[in-house]
Amino acid sequence: MDFNVKKLASGAGLFFTRAVQFTEEKLGQAEKTELDAHFENLMSRADCTKNWTEKIYRQTEVLLQPNPSARIEEFLYEKLDRKAPSRITNGELLGQYMQDAAKEFGSPYGSTLIKVGECERRLGAAEREFLQTSAISFLTPLRNFLEGDWKTISKERRLLENLRLDLDACKTRLKKAKLAEAKAAMAPDFQETRPRNYVLSASASALWSEEVEKAEHELRVAQTEFDRQAEVTRLLLEGISSTHVNHLRCLHEFVEAQAAFYKQCHLHMQELQKDLGRLPNAFALNSTHSMAAAGSSAEGVSSPVETDTLKIEEVQAPATGTRKAKVLYDYDAADSSELSLLADELITVYTLPGMDSDWLIGERGNQKGKVPVTYLELLS
C-alpha cells in the first residue's frame, strides 16, 4: 500500500512538473528543446500520410459499401470478432426478382426478363467477388497501418514529447540552481554583515553546490533517455517510406481488380445486348407490320414494309435522310432480313415510314438489312 501511494505521488509530481513546463513554454517563459529539421520533416510526412490514408480508407469503404447501416453492422461484427453473414448484392437481388416475375408473364416480356435477370445475377456475383478482393488487397493493408503502425508511432511520439518536457524541466532547474549558487557565493559586505552571517552564507553556498551537482546528474540522465527515445521514434518515422511502397503495391492490385470487374461487366452487357437484339424481333416486326398496315389503309399508299415479311431486296434508300453510322459492337444477324455487323466499321443507315424506332436499315456496299440502333453511333 505504501509503495502504491509513493508511486502515485511520484507520478502526480511528474505530471505536475510537465504541466508547469508546458505552460511556461506556451507563455514564452521557458526554453524549449527544438528537434532538428530532418526530424520535423519526418513527423510532418507521417502526419500527412496518416490523414490522407484515413480519408482514402473511409471513402473506399463508402465506394464499396454505400449503405451506412451495412457498414456499421460489419464494423460491429469485426469488433465482436465474429464473421459477418454473407450479404446478397443488389444486382443479384434484382436478377432474382426479374426471374421470379418472368414466371408470371409470357413471351416476349417474360423471356426478356429471364435474360436480363440472368445478366443482373452475373453482374451481382462479379460485384461480390470485386468487393472481397478489394477488401483483402486494399482496405485491409490501410486499416492495418491506421490501427497498428500508426498507433505505435503515436505512442512513441507521445513518450518522446514527455521526455522532452522532462529534459527541459531539468535544464530549467539547473539554470535556477546555478543562479542561486552564484548569488550565495557573492562576497558579503564586511561593514554591514555580522560574523554569524559568514557561516550561514558559506553553508548556503555549499548547499546550492550540491543542488547544482544533483541537477546536472538529472540533466544527463534525462538527455540520455531523450536521445534514446528520439532514435527509436526516428526509425519508426523513417519506416513511413516502406509504408508508401506497400500501399503503392496495394493500389495497383485495387486498380487491377477494378479493371477486371468492369471488363467482366462489359462482357456480360455485350452478351445481353446480343441476346436482346434477337429476342425483340417477333414483337418488333408485329409492331412494325401493324403500323405499316394502318398507314397503308389510311393513305392508300403501299409501304416498303410488308405485313407478313420485310422484303429487304425491295427496299430503296430515300433520296434524303441517309446518315453514316459507326458500329460499336459485333452483331450476328438473326435472319435474312438483318445485316451482320463488325465493330468499328462504317455503314449507311436510314429509316422507313412506320418502322420501329429501335431499328434502322443499314447498307454496306451491295448488302442491306435491319440493324439495331443500340449497336450504332450515328455520325453527323
Q: Explain this structure to me?
A:
The protein is an alpha+beta fold and about 375 residues long. It has two domains: about 15-185 and about 210-280, Arfaptin homology (AH) domain/BAR domain (Substrate Binding Domain Of Dnak, Chain:A, Domain 2); about 325-380, Roll (SH3 type barrels). The protein contains eight helices and five strands, in the order H-H-H-H-H-H-H-H-E-E-E-E-E. Strands 4-3-2-1-5 form a five-stranded antiparallel sheet, with no helix packed on it. It is elongated. Mean pLDDT is about 80; it is low at about 280-310.
CATH superfamily of the largest domain: Arfaptin homology (AH) domain/BAR domain
Structural class: alpha+beta
- Tell me the fraction of residues in β-strands, as a range: 5-15%
State the share of residues found in helices, binned by percent: 55-70%
Protein name: Endophilin-B1
Keywords: Apoptosis, Coiled coil, Cytoplasm, Golgi apparatus, Membrane, Mitochondrion, Mitochondrion outer membrane, SH3 domain
InterPro entries: AH/BAR_dom_sf, BAR_dom, Endophilin_SH3RF, SH3-like_dom_sf, SH3_domain, SH3GLB_SH3
Pfam families: BAR, SH3_9
Which characteristics define this entry?
SH3 type barrels, 7% strand, 5-stranded antiparallel β-sheet, 67% helix, 8 helices, Substrate Binding Domain Of Dnak, Chain:A, Domain 2, 380 residues, 5 strands, alpha+beta
